[in-house]
Amino acid sequence: MIEFINVSKYYPLRRGYRVIMDRVSFRFPEHRNIGILGRNGAGKSTLLRMIAGSVPLDGGRIRRIGRFSWPLGFSGGFNANLSGEENLRFIVRIYDADLRQVTDYVREFSELGDAMKEPLKSYSSGMRARLAFGLCLAMDFDVYLIDEVMAVGDPSFKKKSKAAFDERRQRANIILVSHNMNTIREYADVIIMLHEQKLIVYEDLDQGIRAYKRLSGGDENDPT
């Protein structure tokens, strides 16, 4: 369960503030796979991080019941001066997970090998994404948060990533941000639109996608 209670979130600009939300109260549909849509700059990625609890609010509070992942594939929370293994141990402690089980899974899944002992500042963006993806999938969550990234790496690794993610979806829900409407249709069963600091629910996917395309200037009849 996720409930926003008078939630406000702003970002300071050179002149004034950019408002993501201003005293918003909203209860997210429960036990649903949610697609988040909104124009560029509306604050969709910020919304995911608010749900994850990884960014501070400027007002109000968020009630959560259940275990929520960080945004899948997001590596911004890593310490670049620590090794992959050290980052893994830190995150395992935060989530109170089994260190041996998570380590074994991430080593096998990420295919990073000895690079796990190297500092993250030496990693390519793809290597960081593999580590983050593997770590997220190594732990059981009630809700997985996904910011665009559904799979990473070469075609073989992408296939493995998708299979692992699809297996998790059998016992968990997702909240997904994507600009790809085919992805939204495949993974979501309800749409929430972030528009002008409001959250609007569309139970009908096609209706939600048409509304999004009107806002973004796209062709409402284009299925993608």
Provide a compact summary of the structure.
The chain has 7 helices and 8 strands, in the order E-E-E-H-E-H-H-H-E-H-E-H-E-E-H. With about 220 residues, the protein is of the alpha/beta class.
Write up this protein.
It is globular, with a radius of gyration of 18 Å. The longest helix has 15 residues, at 155-169. The model has no long low-confidence stretch (mean pLDDT 90). It is 36% helix and 24% strand. The strands form 2 sheets. The chain has a 5-stranded mixed beta sheet. Strands 2-1-4 form a 3-stranded antiparallel beta sheet, with helices on one face. It has 7 helices and 8 strands. Helix 3 packs across helix 4 (125-138). With 224 residues, the chain is an alpha/beta fold. The protein folds into 2 domains: 2-69 and 176-216, Rossmann fold, CATH 3.40.50.300; 77-140, no CATH class.
Give the percentage of residues in beta strands: 15-25%
End-to-end gap: 30 Å
CATH superfamily of the largest domain: P-loop containing nucleotide triphosphate hydrolases
SSE ordering: EEEHEHHHEHEHEEH
- The CATH topology of the largest domain is given as Rossmann fold
Sequence-ordered SSE layout with sheet pairings:
Blueprint: E1 2-12, E2 17-27, E3 34-37, H1 44-52, E4 59-64, H2 84-95, H3 99-110, H4 125-138, E5 143-147, H5 155-169, E6 173-177, H6 181-187, E7 190-195, E8 198-202, H7 205-216
Parallel strand pairs: 3-6, 3-7, 5-6
Antiparallel strand pairs: 1-2, 1-4, 7-8
